[in-house]
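Entry details:
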Amino acid sequence: MSLRSISRVSLTVAAFGWFGGALAAAGPADGAAGTRVVRVFASPQSRAVVSGLQVQRRIDYGAFEWVELSSTEFAKLQASGVRFEEQVEPFTLTLGELRFDPAQLRPVVGGGWDQSLGAGEDFRLVQFHGPTRPEWLGELESRGLRVVQYIHPHTYVVWASARQLQGLTAVADAAQPRVAGDAEPAPMAEVRWTGEFLPAYRVLPRWRNLGADAIDTHILIYRGAAVASVMQQLQGLGAKLDSVSDTDPAFRIVQVRLGGDQFRKAAGIPGVYSIQPVATDGGDRGEMSNQVNVNNVNGSNQAFPGYLAWLSSAGVNGNGVIIANVDSGIQDTHPNLVNRMRPCTGSSCGGATSSSHGTHTAGIMAADGTSGVLDGFGFQRGLGVAPGAGIVEQLYSPTYTQSGGMLLLMTHSYNSGASVSGNSWGPSGTPRGYDANTRQVDVGVRDADPNASGNQPLSFVLSFMNGNGGTSTQGTPDEGKNLLSVGSTKMQTSGGTQILAINDLSSNSGHGPALDGRKIPLMVAPGCYVDSTLPTNSYGLNCGTSMASPHVSGGVALFIQRYRNLPDYSTDPSPALVKAAFLAVCRNLAGFLDANGGTLGNPFDSKQGWGRFDLQAIVTPSTSVRYFDNPQLFTATGQEWSRTVSAQDPSKPLRIMLVWTDAPGHGLGGSTPAWNNNLDLVVESGANTYRGNVFAGAGGWSVTGGTADDRNNTEGVFIGPTAPSSYTIRVIAANINSDGVPGNASPTDQDFALACYNCAEEPGFTLAVTPASTEVCAPADANYTVQVNQILGFADPVVLSISGNPAGTTAMFSPNPVTPPGSATLTISNTSGASDGEYGMVVTGTSGAIVRNSSANLKLFTSAPAIPSLSAPADGATGVSLQPNLTWSTAAQAQTYDVQIALDSGFGSVVSTGSGLTSANFTPAAALSSGTLHYWRVRAANACGQSAWSSPRSFTTRVTPAILLVDDDDNGPDVRSYYTSALMAIGRDYDLWDTNNTDNEPSAAYLSAYSTVIWFTGDEFGGTAGPGTAGSTALANYLDSGKCLFMSSQDYLYDRGLTAFASGYLGVGSYTNDTRQTSVTGSAPLFGGMGPYVLSYPFTNWSDSLVAGSGAGVAFTGNLATAAIYKDAGVYRSQFWAFPLEAISDAATRAALMNMIVNWCAELQCQTARGDMTGSAGVNGDDIQQFARCMIGGSVTAPGCRCADMDANNALNTNDVTLFVNCVLGGPCP
């Protein structure tokens, strides 16, 4: 990172005061007064009841049905006795701190914050009628809308133009601009409302009336927007770029200094998703407490020594597990810590930095007690929870203030080998809601290093804010969904005497709930006061939630070690399973005191969470425990997973905890609901049904009835005080709306973990239907295989039944019943009597009291599909991308689509095809020929056959220039114009790639279309000059194919060092950083006679000195040493300037030098592929077209073999034609 001895002071103006917005009527809509929305749980009886009602809307999800009905019909449903849940305010949104049903009311904010968006692409909103189905999102994508982020309830932020939003539904925001054009596609029946994502939703009210002072600010910019244009517009408002992060899956996080009075204008820039001032109120948040954690106390709660002996008997000490202590520095030479320290990777590593706070928290985690020092009560001082674990030392500051800094800290933790990140600090000490920093942590728990392949999970343990009781006194990222937040209980006095009231919360501990209503913190642990290590080689007592969470971090290390040694589990527990294992057995603190001195009730609440940390129950459970870690991946709403269990010891409780690592929330902050995917925990025993988080009574046990928790991603069912029956555990996918498990083929999915204490699996059976979905053409039958497998030798007959098959059809199982293990064939016949459509069916297996369900999907067609209608590009369009996105309207009864692209209208020369496409769009996998007329057509297909091909359309691709200009600067200042002006002055066309100050660099496939790459990094401050690892590999492959690279960067070697690419392809033998050359003179053979030039840097001079390596030569000599080198490897050519081209102040000189550079590169193309006018490394019709364009246009400087000026006499004539023809035919090419 190019940060040379420069410090920044962050300034934030705190401007609270919630605005009072108004609501204006939006027009008529469903969901009006009198309409009730219910979720009806699936059974043959419930389906029959719903079929007999006059409903307004009915959506079948397999495990349940989503139904809208009148109050009269609702009364009938109540009287029927079937199980259902009414949805309260099922469509009410909270955005910009306003609550409203968008189909009925539109916010009126004033001050320009509710200004209508333009007609072009920007963020807009689409609300569905119920929980998401994957095909709905696919239909949005096929219409050209890009799904960006889910917002509860049933709403998506999408990237689309006003035109693309039109026609989705009859109920739309009346303020949306209407755009004339082609006929609109048919409305989507599943869409309830569409509207605008107003500027008011992008900035919280507290930040809408700030003054003109520049503020350090994080801005989230959509990755699919024209990011360079967004940055230019922000700079036009006075924004000064500091850093950019590209690790968020949807957004680039940009840190700028921007005047607070410019926030409204900035929020109106298309692509700006959220604006949030950088928080400035963040910061830091012995053996006796360990014994309390493992219940080594007497009847008066007095702890006694002996923790090491307890660890020995438990068979764990944390050995082999690494904890990242992310804090303010550790005295890593402390005798009780020195043997625990492990190597750290990344810029946040602590090194020699030491602090009391960090040393204290590290000691609680893993100090090993080597010194043998005892306190006055006989307890070892400096003995942590996991004395065999390793510690990685990281400093949270200043990394957390940078764009993407929270996630970068987690990346460094993971890459240093840590399995858990311990954090006794936070970027903000006041509630900000689910903001951008919180979103980063939730991203990192699932994947701590998004730039690496696959997902890298990391448990994140956080000290809840020292909020001193109250209500919602948390900070950031305390409202995260995937982390483990820990409040504080009483432990010792400041003098070291144990406090016996170990079940009281300490007065410093904050209370929830989250601003969106979720319950936080998740648990509490000893925190006030706690004895631990201090500098220098000493010990002391500190009080705070900072001292609580390190106990849990150490406990995680012990649990991971235990889990690795279990015979049934081969991988480390997921962060979700860690949470499930810990939360299921927390100690209920009902009857004790909260932080305000009031009396606590039963968990789950927003003070104790699930209760006090019980390490003994986790590491040495007294009964059997079954861990289910990601046993099934849900890919659609309505799917379910189940197991039948019984208590190993019926005289004790059965404790079941479901946890899932949710998809990242919105990141907007405030009280907008942040939950995404919703799972339901249901436990059934005979006629009794227990739902997750429904507790009552003195013991805090689960009770029947209640409604499912729709917001918390921790759900518990505690059967007690005894558990004498067998129990069926069901996990139901209530709403799968987001990408919970990135990196696979499913855009909406969710996994989960479940811990069951005192749990033994019961004999039973599983049920699975294959295929999960099938398509048939009436009158053909649909056939499925129903597999019935046994659990623990179960062999009783299973009776099969089905619901949800199309009306008029007949369903038959053969055989029926089935004795497990076995299978049956399900045949759906008489399909000619049914209507076409997609049907969600539920197959039920029943054996005595055991009932299992499995979903199956049927797509029934009654005729071949209609002919698709082509949409874009328009017929005869020119300048079309080489990889265009072809779109067409969905055709009636279409299942899949085929598309062809050809060079002739008869499609005799097909150059690209797509087949079996499930959405109405297609992008060629490889680039099409440039400057070429193409034809395309589409046909639809289903089980009944294919439609005819559509009438073809034509388009002409754009001409690809030979030069790709890679903008890798930080735009502070923006130096792109130095390069673009030079290229335009010499008549050279170019394409542009903007890395936006990240490693988002062009791939080898993308580079292959160009013969020359020009790469500049400007004043790369706060980021890292490229190319990065992937970019270097791409450039190496590119050069090996016979291409040319010119690179100008004073920061590349400082940031990356002498990489294999720098030495092998750029020709750098060695270098000296930051020599600050002030003049350069050209060297033969490339730049002989050029200069000397006095360098005038438009930013700080950090130029380097070079020594040319093997095969390289000197291009420019500086006043101190070699300033630029070149390498002509025969196959490829490269130039590397360790000073910026923009330091040459004269524009004409820069243009002359640029002309020499590109001509030098163009010579290589003649040698590599004769007649290659386009620089594509091949000779084809494109080159003849390019030659003709050069002749007609009179250009002698277009790319490739000096373009048309074959004899280099600066004139175009018949001799050039003769030479070109000879070149094409393989003769000499000048």
